[in-house]
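Appendix B. Raw example, untouched.
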Amino acid sequence: MPLAAPDALDRLITLMATTKTFNLAGAHIGNAIIPDPVLRDAFQTRMAALGISPNSFGMFIAEAVHSPDGVEWLDSLMPYVDANREIFDAALNAIPGDRPMPLEATYLSWVDFRGTGLAPAECTRRIEETAGPAPPTAKPVPETEMQSETTAFTTVLRRFSCR
């Protein structure tokens, strides 16, 4: 980001988290990159005043997920997630008038059902009463190519914890 906004370095804070990508929502981990030392000190002072300090478990996780093993795991996960998106899109394409929004760095899909001609209450009723989990993926990923998310990530963490 500093390259994209060199004139904003005195007020630039870049926040990142591995929690979404690696399904670690309860880990309370994230990174704040603050190039300006005055702003960084103010940020650290405020965090300390709030009683918020770096999470040692989170730092350990961040190291693991950015390791070659973590990158390999993520690279093997992406085709699996994309195959699920394709199945979802195919099902939506069978509904006349709906308009799914393209996914943008997320696995959450937004769908506009206004074009179906259904009243909002009817649309809501149908979703609540008939929507459910999708059938198993039409493109199964062999266990040898993609372990379950939990097993694969546990393996990455185990490698780092056994140093």
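End of appendix B.
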